[in-house]
Write a structure and sequence with these properties.
With 339 residues, the protein is α/β, with parallel strands linked by helices. Helices cover 32% and strands 26% of the residues. The structure holds adenosine-5'-triphosphate and magnesium ion (MG).
């Protein structure tokens, strides 16, 4: 496998985090959530953050965005320098100006970032209207173009849809479009492609790397997928229990990891050998699905609209003790069938 091996030591440093300590708000004696994080990202570099669930990856990224939930978590020490601006001291108005224009974030949970009562197309467009000089018509055209670039299907319908009317992967791509549309200097992406099928995921990763080439964007990328890490990372930091336990260029990390914990992470990468087929526990069907159809919207006596056919002629059976896997591209109807 080929790894990236560019040297970034001469590139401009976009983000510099030193000794960052974050703890529970108002409880200085409790164990901190982040225990002295050091992290550097340079222009054009992709820095991957990996590590077990709960190790502090999301808290690190939220802190860098100035988005810690104030009633729950607080900065207890350290500094975050974003191109000369000290984020830990920045006023809320200054942070708002920085976000979107200089730093953008793709959140782990799209629903927390999207406004449930605004059409998703308008939400992307709003970012342009607030932070660029484009006319309304230009902003709309740019929005449609961006939605096509993140490979959303049926763009006119999705533009006018509310978040709850989209599939999980489609919502994730709306958020990606919002984050990329202003060419930020720093992009923080927290598990941005977990709800996407592998082909769409590849297209999104390609889109991010094109933006990096064009604009020199620095990317902080959080993922559990070591395959993605091997593909896109220049540098990797491994987190465990609120600390960065190892940080190294991708080739070094994969070929000569220093920490036992990093080795364990690498060994846990699944391979694609199927296991031996298991016989069902009993010869009967637990569930039989026969000719299942599901259409969203449309219907209604006086409306000629057709609605969205989310499932058509779906058939399967499952026997006791067996596992049925349903795979397919984002928006193909998997969650609809399960519901
Ligand atoms: N709002 C909050 N209030 C209190 N504790 C929190 C809050 N958010 C996160 N934490 C705690 O901070 C620690 C780090 O959480 P974080 O969300 O950063 O983990 P993570 O590495 O992103 O995990 P995952 O891979 O599951 O997303 C956890 O122990 C978590 O319980
Ligand atoms: Mg997280």
């Amino acid at each position: 496998m080929e790894f990236k091996s560019k040297d970034f030591t001469d590139a401009k440093r976009v983000l510099k985090i030193r000794g960052l300590t974050v703890g529970l708000a108002g409880r200085p004696k409790a164990d901190p959530v982040l225990r002295g994080i050091d992290l550097d990202i340079r222009a054009g570099e992709t820095h991957c953050l990996v590590g077990e669930s709960g190790s502090g990856k999301s808290v690190t990224s939220l802190t860098a965005m100035g988005l810690l939930p104030k009633d729950a978590l607080e900065i207890q020490g350290g500094s975050i320098d974003l191109e000369g601006i000290e984020i830990t001291q920045a006023k809320p108005a200054q942070m708002r100006a920085l976000r979107a224009r200089r730093i953008a974030m793709i959140f782990q949970e799209p629903m927390t970032a999207l406004n449930p009562v605004l059409r998703v197309g308008e939400q992307i467009e709003e970012v342009l209207n607030m932070h660029s000089d484009l006319s309304r018509a230009e902003a709309k055209a740019r929005t449609i173009d961006m939605m096509e670039q993140v490979h959303l299907p049926d763009v006119e319908r999705i533009y006018a849809a509310f978040p709850h009317q989209l599939s999980g992967g489609q919502r994730q791509r709306i958020m990606i479009a919002m984050a990329l549309i202003l060419d930020p200097d720093l992009l923080i992406a927290d598990e941005p492609t977990t709800a996407l099928d592998v082909t769409t995921q590849l297209q999104i990763l390609k889109l991010i790397s094109e933006m990096q080439e064009r604009h020199g964007t620095a990317v902080l990328f959080i993922t559990h997928d070591m395959g993605v890490v091997a593909e896109i990372a220049d540098t990797v930091s491994v987190m465990q229990k609120g600390r960065i336990v190892e940080s190294a260029p991708i080739r070094q990390l994969l070929t000569a990891p220093k920490e036992d914990y990093t080795r364990k992470l690498l060994q846990a990468v699944p391979n694609l050998d199927p296991r031996a087929p298991r016989a069902p526990a009993e010869a009967r069907d637990v569930i039989t699905v026969d000719g299942l159809e599901m259409t969203y919207g449309g219907g209604g006596f006086f409306r000629a609209s057709q609605g969205v056919r989310a499932a058509q002629d779906v058939n399967f059976t499952i026997q006791p003790g067996r596992t049925l896997g349903i795979v397919g591209e984002s928006g193909s109807g998997k969650s609809t069938v399960a519901r």
